[in-house]
């Protein structure tokens, strides 16, 4: 029996048709790379990849259409669906179809006139929440107005643009108008959910105490917990037949949600529920297939465009004319199903003006090679330090900062100090990968007598949960430290979403890893005061993209050190992640 080491070849071999096999191979491979489908318009770039496995003269799409295993209609049960010159596995076509259908359903359920009148009745309250600043458009206000009017809203914004502050103000308006509103908050990871909870508690709003008390009752959860995770099953307790009983659902870090979870989330939301998705369209997409949040944000030619009636309403809430928005739209945008449903927050309150992290991260995401080169050539260190020599002294100087959390006896404070700095890696394997970097840091701290690695779960070891453990209430991405309890017994301590310490016997934790360093992917949804980002020295690493760099850079609130070869840094900014899907084209067909 012939065997294959390549899982994509194994998949293709299940199908007898020699004409279908290369397509099956490519669809499988594309899924593993994060694409939802195979774009048949781009086959010319794939021929070299499959020529060593399959005897082909050309890839005959007309012949593909005649294959018994391929359906041209989405409602049939063949393994493959061919739609608009895109080849899908049936399951992924169904995910995409459900997302499309549900978004259009939410959109069409909007009671715009009723919502407009309610906003007008509360004009003074809203103005008090959003004081105007001369010559600066308050996009948070715009997002809040649209979120109240629409049943489906996307809010995208870079670091420090105030996405969580916007959520707090949206909720304040909603509670002012309807005090009995049922609200659910969710995020893809436990860490992101905890950050959402903390940010909402810290929101300094000028509102009555009864509204503030509503915020205390909000308990953000992971999406899996919200939907009702069923062990060893791809399904959830909440679905179309058993929807979530909430009036408003707000989901943070939506760029991290893959197409499968996105579909199941929308399926569990009732038709009358208001859904608000927050995220950063420029960040890394999900680990699994799909980049739905980014796709939706790029569906139109431009964002932040509104019809005359919506523009007038928004401007009626802004006293300073210099801070009002203008109507500047073309007919193509007006006709798009997502018109007036996406708002981009443009003003960063964290990186003001010419602060370096903001400037450099924008240069990366926009592939501004001139600005990137200027940062590389810069001699003096500011917010951004680029080290192309991988200076070991600079590395040691940074990781010496971990002494702060080790010396802190208060466990809760120690957890906060652990988040004051973090080493971020692009890859897991290799000299600059997470595993080796963590070993280097452990060795350095051992030499300094700050830790003793005699035990697997040694005192002060920082750990990260790598798989959801619902029995213990710990989730993928949760970070804790090993400390002694009151009885001098070593325990793993974590802070839950309510800000309370929870402790667990380390022996109960099977899926954990040391987290002095973590991957940039794992850092999504987190913030650190200072960041050291280490890129691999090897050339032609596919994972190095502008989205990866941007995500790592924007985890830092104050300072970032980037250790990278100049060539790799410049190439990374040129490499843009583009995942194949049909969602935007299918919107235009509706």
From TrEMBL:
It comes from Pedobacter psychrophilus. Gene3D superfamilies: P-loop containing nucleotide triphosphate hydrolases, RecBCD complex, subunit RecD, N-terminal domain. This is RecBCD enzyme subunit RecD. One of its GO terms (biological process) is double-strand break repair via homologous recombination. Heterotrimer of RecB, RecC and RecD. All subunits contribute to DNA-binding. The keyword DNA repair applies. The gene is recD. Belongs to the RecD family. GO terms for molecular function: 5'-3' DNA helicase activity; ATP binding; ATP hydrolysis activity; DNA binding; exodeoxyribonuclease V activity; single-stranded DNA helicase activity.
């Amino acid at each position: 029996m012939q065997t294959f080491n390549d899982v994509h070849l194994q998949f293709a071999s299940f199908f007898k048709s020699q004409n279908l096999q290369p397509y099956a191979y490519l669809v499988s491979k594309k899924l593993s790379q994060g694409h939802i489908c195979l774009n048949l318009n781009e086959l010319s770039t794939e021929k070299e990849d499959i020529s060593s496995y399959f005897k082909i003269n050309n890839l005959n799409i007309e012949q593909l259409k005649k294959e018994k295993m391929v359906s041209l209609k989405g409602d049939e049960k063949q393994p493959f669906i061919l739609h608009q010159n895109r080849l899908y596995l049936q399951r992924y076509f169904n995910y995409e179809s459900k997302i499309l259908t549900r978004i259009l359903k939410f959109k069409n359920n909007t009671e715009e006139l009723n919502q407009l009148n309610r906003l007008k009745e509360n004009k003074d309250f809203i103005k008090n929440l959003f004081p105007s600043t001369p010559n600066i458009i308050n996009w948070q206000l715009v997002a809040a107005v649209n979120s109240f009017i629409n049943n489906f809203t996307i809010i995208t914004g870079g670091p420090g643009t105030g996405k969580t502050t916007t959520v707090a103000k949206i909720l304040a308006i909603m509670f002012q108008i309807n005090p009995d509103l049922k609200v659910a908050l969710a995020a893809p990871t436990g860490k992101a959910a905890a950050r959402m909870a903390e940010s909402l508690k810290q929101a300094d709003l000028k509102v009555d105490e009864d509204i503030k008390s509503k915020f205390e009752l909000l308990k953000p959860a992971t999406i899996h917990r919200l939907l009702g995770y069923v062990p060893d099953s791809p399904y959830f307790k909440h679905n179309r037949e058993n929807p979530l009983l909430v009036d408003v659902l707000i989901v943070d870090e939506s760029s991290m949600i893959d197409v499968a979870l996105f579909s199941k989330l929308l399926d569990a939301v009732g038709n009358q529920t208001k859904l608000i998705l927050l995220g950063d369209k420029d960040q890394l997409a999900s680990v699994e297939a799909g980049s739905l949040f980014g796709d939706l944000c790029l569906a139109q030619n431009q964002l932040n465009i509104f019809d005359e009636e919506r523009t007038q309403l928004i401007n009626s809430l802004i006293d300073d004319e210099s801070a009002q928005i203008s109507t500047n739209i073309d007919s193509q945008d007006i006709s798009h199903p997502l018109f007036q449903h996406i708002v981009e927050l443009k003003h960063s309150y964290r990186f003001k003006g010419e602060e370096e992290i903001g400037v450099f991260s924008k240069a990366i995401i926009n592939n501004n090679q001139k600005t990137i080169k200027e940062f590389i050539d810069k001699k003096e260190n500011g917010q951004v330090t680029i080290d192309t020599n991988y200076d070991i002294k600079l590395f040691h100087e940074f990781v010496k900062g971990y002494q702060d959390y080790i010396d802190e006896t208060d466990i809760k404070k120690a957890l906060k100090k652990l988040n004051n700095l973090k080493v971020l890696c692009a890859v897991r394997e290799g000299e600059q990968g997470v595993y080796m970097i963590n070993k280097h840091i452990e060795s350095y701290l051992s030499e300094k007598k700050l830790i003793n690695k005699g035990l697997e779960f040694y005192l002060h070891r920082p750990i990260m949960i790598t798989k959801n453990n619902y029995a213990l209430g710990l989730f993928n991405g949760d970070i804790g430290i090993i400390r002694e309890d009151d009885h001098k017994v070593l325990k793993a301590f974590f802070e839950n979403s309510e800000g309370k310490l929870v402790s667990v016997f380390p022996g109960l934790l099977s899926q954990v890893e040391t987290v002095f360093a973590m991957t940039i992917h794992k850092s999504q949804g987190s913030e650190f005061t200072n960041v050291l980002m280490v890129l691999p020295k090897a050339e032609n690493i596919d994972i190095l993209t502008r989205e990866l760099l941007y995500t790592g850079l924007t985890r830092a609130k104050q300072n970032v050190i980037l250790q990278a070869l100049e060539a790799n840094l410049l190439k990374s900014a040129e490499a843009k992640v583009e995942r194949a899907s049909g969602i935007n084209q299918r919107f235009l067909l509706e």
